[in-house]
Amino acid sequence: MEILERIPIHLNPEEIGEKLLVNKTGNWDDFQSIFEIAETLISAKAAYEVRYVDEKLKDAVIIDGVRFVSRVMRKNLDKVGRVFPYVVTIGAGLEDRCKATDDLLEQYYLDTIGNIALVKARKYLDHELRSRFAFESLSFMSPGSLADWPIEEQKQLFLLFEGVERSIGVRLNDSCLMIPRKSVSGIFFPTEVTFYNCQLCPRDNCVGRKAGYNENLAREYGINVWT
Ligand code: SF4
After folding, report:
1. Residue 22 in contact with residue 97, Cβ under 8 Å?
2. CATH 3.40.109.40 given to domain 2-195
3. pLDDT (tens digit, 9 = 90+) per residue, 91-125?
4. Ligand 1: residues whose CB is within 6 Å?
5. Domain boundaries, the chain
């Protein structure tokens, strides 16, 4: 298992403040002091593995002996032999601070700053993998982001990460959620065209959407159950 310790996270308070509509909903000085505290509580780390696809079944793939059931993954890995399972976290500092305050606005600010930091940490890992392994383009899938690859498959994914709790402090609880909550996991794989889960997800008004819903693509993947 490869570990990236102390991932540098550069956050821009003006950008985040704008996103949070601080000028309309809050006080800039309050936000600035919460932001400064938040920065000190972020401790971003990542673990990743280099693994190989053993077998490609009809609606599943076997990666180093672990079976993942997902039609979308099966299609995404059609021409792929090597994959990079990963776990990224920003640690428990921010969520502990969130629990310690009753101020809903502060909780909202901390939560949003944490989400932005987590996305940046995963991007850092993405760049690291591209440069270490000379990939032009990488995509990722995460258990629980599509009905096709449910959250329960976290258990399978974590089978590939023996000792990850000891290394970067992330574990799964009984509901297959990662602790600390500000963690993400999944599988990076090389692609010619970037794949986004969002292309297959019809959810309306999602602030996290990275690409438009593509009904034709969803049909191609055989998961178009909404029409
Ligand atoms: S649209 Fe939102 S819910 Fe759907 S996959 Fe993208 S980020 Fe997740």
Report:
1. no
2. yes
3. 999 999 999 999 999 999 999 999 999 999 999 99
4. 145, 197-198, 201, 203, 206, 208-209
5. 2-195, 197-227
